[in-house]
Amino acid sequence: MAKTLMATVITACMCVISSFMIINSNRQELFAQSLDLSSATISDINKAFDDGTLTSERLVNLYLARIDSYENNGPNLNALITINEKVLETARALDVERQSDGPRSLLHGIPVVLKDNVDTQDMPTTAGSLLLKGSIPPNDAFIVSKLRQAGAIILGKANMSEFASGVTISSVDGPMLNPHDLSRTPSGSSGGTGVSIAASFAQLGIGTDTGGSVRGPSSSNGVAGLKPTHGLLSRDGIVPLALSFDMAGPMARHVFDVAAMLGAMTGVDPSDPATEKSAEVIETDYTQYLDPNALEGARIGIARDFLGYDTEVDWIIEASLEAMRNAGATIVDVRYPRWLLDAKADFYTTIRWREFKDQIENYLSTLDSQYPRTLEEMVAISQQILAAPRDGERTNPTRWSLFQQELNSGSLEDPEYLAMINHGMPLVSTTLQGLLEEDKLDAIVYPTAPRRPGPLGENRGSSSPNPAVSATNLANLSGFPDLIVPAGFTSNGLPVGISFFGLPFSEPTLFGLGYAFEQITKARRNPVHTPPLPGEKIP
Question: Catalytic residues, which ones?
Fold first, then answer.
């Protein structure tokens, strides 16, 4: 049904696209001064809006045409679950408002895709699960309300790993495909958002990150993304995995866009006490920190514990370090304590599994009575789904077996859980803060994924039986921010990302460093399976 609706919405706009392409076929002189859609930042788009050479309606139509070509046809990337059936109506209204009152913000008229665990009161929020299929929450998530207030257009909901864990498959809509290599994983759990942004299905995207779920898909799909400091964005209205770790994060093809999107979503939310931590440091404009010279004089640590697993990834990281040196940065070798590397997976699962059991039930209590109320009910229902019920839907034994582990993991009153919350997490954050402060580092960098994207269907996440050697869940255990920037490509065309990890609420510093690196290296490129369409230009 979702795919049928998506196709209907897109078909309705195709005549508009065709007309536009015919009109513009004779405007080569104008196009000589144009940008490819995928290369245009929000700043570029706003200049086109201001010049009158672009409208939000046309921008949305360009993205819908790409969705029709590469999501519903061609490689069938399976990145999206739902398209907002009022997306063009909303774009037209925002165009009228721009003309009469001016733009609300940089995001006015800009299309955004949301991971399908972020509540929208006008579209279903399924968390990628048949167990919540068709569920329409009573309210928008806090960050969705902020985006709408800023004038952003919610284009649709992105496919994801079911309940934000396990393999990159949802039982609602099946697996997501990496547009750089259809046989390789796009990573999860925000895989659909990562694919959508890389394939230019929208300008902006939202993922969520509990152990690396914004950062893995950013790296594997060759885009930028941010896991913010815990408490900088509200978690209200997001299907929980573990609230001690959960954070929503912006994803985009350009660091500028990530910074612009973050500023639109910050704010203290009475429904989420964690946001009180950010009250004194909230920014609403992070683009002011995007300094192309930020690497000059910077001190950057390299976490060498996460090298040595893939020769080509290592080479790309070493080349990235050399680019930073040439830009004036000092590079300092950093080694993490052995106990931290050995213990971090146990610290993580001790908290993550117990919190899901407790917190998912709080979320389920807000939904219509036809949906499960407890994790026990979720286990029982999933055990009755022994074959794929309908076209596009899948059984998901990897995630459903994890339900049982979460159910049996214990409670939030267990001494082991309390020890991790009260002592383990502070120990991690104090240790990492010490590493940054001891050498007066502005950030620590590391390969977001120490190995190139693996085969489709392989589970390398933090909850997998043999989790990948990765630093990503340290940012969740500590609550510290982590910015991902494209760094290069392996010999078989797979993206590699580099992480800029810093102290709490150091997003301004990380944005400066990441932007400077992006401008020097310009390592992003369009996926081979989703090339630009004819006439797809931003004048």
Answer: 115, 189, 213
